[in-house]
Amino acid sequence: MKTKLILIAIALGYISQVAAQDTKRFYVGTNPLSYGLTLPLQEDIKRYAPVLAGNEYGFSLAGACYFHPQIAMETRVAMGSLHQVASVNQLHAGIIVHPFLKNKGSELVRIYGGAFAKVWDYHNRLTDIHFYNLSPYAVIGYHCNFNNWMVDLRMNQTLAIVSWTNLENTKQGASAFFSPWPELIKILPTFTCTIGYRLGERYSK
Q1: DSSP assigned state of 183
Q2: Which CATH topology does 2-200 take?
Q3: Domain coordinates in residue numbering, the chain
Q4: 148-152: which pairs have CB atoms within 8 A and are 24 or more residues apart?
Q5: Contact 159/137 with Cβ under 8 angstroms?
Q6: CA dist., res. 71 & res. 98, Å (int)
Q7: Could you give the CA distance from residue 184 to residue 173 in angstroms, rounded to a whole number?
Q8: Contact between residue 176 and residue 149 where contact means Cβ atoms under 8 Å apart
Q9: What is the DSSP letter of 21?
Q10: Going residue by residue through the chain (205 aa), what tens digit of pLDDT does each one get?
Q11: What's the distance, CA 20 to chain centroid?
Q12: CA distances (Å), 35 to each of 40, 55, 66, 72, 79, in order?
């Protein structure tokens, strides 16, 4: 619970700071697919469906600030239960760049790329053991805007992983990492859908 409160506080603090900057454009949103992963599902679905939700489970919150028409900083929080024993809490932060938005009136081509880092806390509630991961990843995506509403479709490719745990007599490990299931396929991206609401100054002619 303490970890969840810290993650929520960080995300809300970031979004509040962004909202106070009324000269900037920003959005807040959620990943609708992440909520379904906390439901009782068949084992095979439970194992492989997360690739379509960016490996986010349960409650999710995203916020981004465009401090330039082409550049935004984004943070994401996700927290939920995998099953009765384990829960996963996540914090993401990164930057996205729209290379084709050359001026304030260019709204047609909203393809972007970006770089992020994710902290993942897998908590076994029976043993109170935490398994932590820190992962840098690259993204490519597309914004679909409908007035103030937006839909963000994104592909995420993990590049490496650093892992550690609070279990005694264990060591930190690090390696290149490109797939949630390296035993099945060596390189496999995940996908994220975010539905959000845009606020603040619009970059328009």
Answers
A1: T
A2: Porin (2.40.160)
A3: 2-200
A4: 148/197, 148/198, 148/199, 149/195, 149/196, 149/197, 149/198, 150/27, 150/29, 150/194, 150/195, 150/196, 150/197, 150/198, 151/193, 151/194, 151/195, 151/196, 152/29, 152/192, 152/193, 152/194, 152/195, 152/196
A5: yes
A6: 6
A7: 21
A8: no
A9: -
A10: 555 555 555 555 555 554 444 447 889 999 999 998 888 777 778 788 889 999 999 999 999 998 887 889 999 999 998 878 899 999 999 999 988 766 554 455 589 999 999 999 999 999 999 999 999 999 999 988 888 899 999 999 999 999 999 988 888 999 999 998 888 899 999 999 999 998 875 544 3
A11: 23
A12: 11, 11, 27, 26, 10
Query: pTM for the complete prediction?
Result: 0.82
What are 6's two structure tokens? 């810290």
Q: Are 50 and 190 in contact (CB under 8 A)?
A: yes
Q: How far apart are CA 16 and CA 10, in angstroms?
A: 10
Which two tokens mark 173?
């490990």
- Bridge-based pairing state of the strands 149-158 and 86-97: unpaired
State the sign of the Cα–Cα–Cα–Cα dihedral 161, 4, 80, 92: negative
> What amino acid is encoded at 98 in this protein?
H
CA 115, 32, 5 angle in degrees (round to 5)? 70
List the structure tokens of 126: 């029976």
Which residues touch 204 (CB under 8 Å, ≥6 apart)? 104, 105, 107
